[in-house]
Amino acid sequence: MTFCRTKRILIVDDEYFNVEALASMIQILAPHLKDSVDTALSGGEALSKIIEAINPKGTSRHIGGEWTLDEKMQMAKEGVAQECDYGLIFMDCSMPFMDGYECCTKAIDIFDKCLLSKHPKVMAVTGHVEAQYLEKAISSGMN
Known about the structure:
By secondary structure, the protein is of the alpha/beta class. The chain has five helices and six strands.
């Protein structure tokens, strides 16, 4: 598994056990990434973390606080190159309130509005094996 050391990983799942299991697998398979894993227990929390992780290229934090999504979209309109600190997002498909499909669609909309040159990869995490779920994941923008 090759992965840029400067990019972070986001695990999104409403079940804490699943989050810990995925984080543990990452630590075992790629020990150099163990400190690069963030977690979110809901779709809403994931979107907040994704918005926070989008910054003008070459910076990681706005001095004096974070930029708002509106400010980030305005910077994109002005031609300021932006990037996301996340390179990979593991997304649970079956969460309450906002499932992974909806969360992924909203995240991709945010990436597009901020004119990211490269979107993070979004991997579906699900127990479903039927073709309809694969199609739903792909149509929501999951890789």
